[in-house]
Design brief:
The protein has helices at 16-28, 48-58, 73-83, 103-111, 129-145, 162-169, 178-184, 208-222, 225-253, 262-293; strands at residues 2-9, 34-41, 62-67, 88-91, 116-124, 154-161, 189-196, 301-305. The chain is α/β, with parallel strands linked by helices and 314 residues long. It folds into two domains: 2-222 and 297-305, Spore Coat Polysaccharide Biosynthesis Protein SpsA, Chain A (Alpha-Beta Complex); 225-293.
Length: 314
């Protein structure tokens, strides 16, 4: 069995050697014909790339991909999946919150005929209450909005068969939500419950603004329900306008004076807000079409350091 381990890295100089030690230790205890460790440097500003080069020089099973700038976690992972050539592909983040020691047990599931074994968190250590609550809210909101059943409390930590990765690599969209894309392809998929540890070193690379953008990509990439919400909002505003118009007409017929500018200002603000919300939602989808229509490459690779490990496309 030839295995590929794909690890996107962004400013992970403090933990990359520990990552290498733990992954190689796990692989050494498994029945593998060979394996490759694909490290992707996503435009790091620290010594991550230098450390990758040093690891590659010491171990030719390591493939190092240096992207020309920071393209983001999902596109860095896409670059790694394109280059990985193993019969099975293990995706893990460099922060070691997802234990590589779970790989042998996940391999057993694929031996039984499963195509995707995804890690499902039952406990999250070392994260703030806000991060835990916002993540929980995001997954449950996503479950209600999207048109496919994306498992809750999951990340990109998973083991995937070659045929599942081949299907994933055929999906060219720019705004990528890979855990949703993997769910979309179907095939046989199973959850693997585990407890997520705290980061080994460094700080999170997903602050609130990035998390919010990631949430928008996930929702707009797999659902048109926000557009339907915009339509419902427009219908609701129109009905409200009809009722207000009927009230004004009734008051005029009764000889009453409709008082003040305050109510008029409130109505104008309400209608203007509804219009802006609708335009914003439509703009999000139009913007995605604009970016996809330009057909630019998803990422640019500046340099690849590849060893002499055995490769297989089967």
């Amino acid at each position: 069995m030839f295995l590929s381990i794909v690890v996107p890295c962004f400013n992970e100089e403090e933990g990359i050697h520990e990552l290498y030690r733990r992954i190689t230790s796990v692989c050494a205890g498994m029945d593998l014909s060979s394996y490759e460790l694909v490290l992707i440097n996503d435009g790091s500003s620290d010594k991550t790339w230098s450390y990758m080069r040093a690891l590659h020089e010491a171990d030719n099973r390591i493939i190092c991909i240096n992207l020309s700038r920071n393209f983001g976690h999902q596109l860095a992972l896409t670059a790694g999946l394109k280059i990985a050539s193993g019969q099975r592909i293990f995706i893990i983040d460099a922060d070691l919150q997802d234990p590589p020691e779970l790989l042998p047990a996940m391999m057993v599931r694929l031996d039984a005929g499963v195509d995707v074994v995804y890690g499902q968190r039952i406990k999250r250590e070392g994260e703030t209450l806000f991060k835990k609550k916002s993540a929980s809210l995001f997954y449950r909101l996503l479950d209600r909005l999207v048109d496919i059943d994306i498992p809750v409390d999951t990340g990109d930590f998973r083991l995937i068969s070659r045929r599942a990765v081949n299907a994933l690599n055929c999906m060219p969209e720019n705004h990528r939500f890979i855990r949703g894309m993997v769910t979309w392809i179907g095939m046989r998929q199973e959850a693997f419950p585990y407890e997520r540890a705290a980061r080994f070193a460094g700080t999170t690379k997903y602050p609130f603004v990035k998390m919010l953008k990631f949430a928008f990509d996930a929702i707009t990439g797999f659902s048109v329900k926000p557009l339907r919400f915009a339509s419902y909002l427009g219908v609701g505003a129109a009905l409200l306008s009809v009722f207000l118009g009927a009230y004004v007409l009734y008051a005029w017929c009764e000889g009453q004076t409709v008082p003040g500018w305050t109510s008029l200002a409130v109505i104008m603000l309400l209608m203007g807000s509804c219009q802006l919300i609708v335009l914003g939602i439509m703009g999000e989808y139009v913007g995605r079409l604009y970016i996809e229509g330009k057909s630019r490459p998803l990422y640019v690779i500046q340099e690849v350091l590849a060893g002499s490990s055995k490769r297989s496309d089967t």
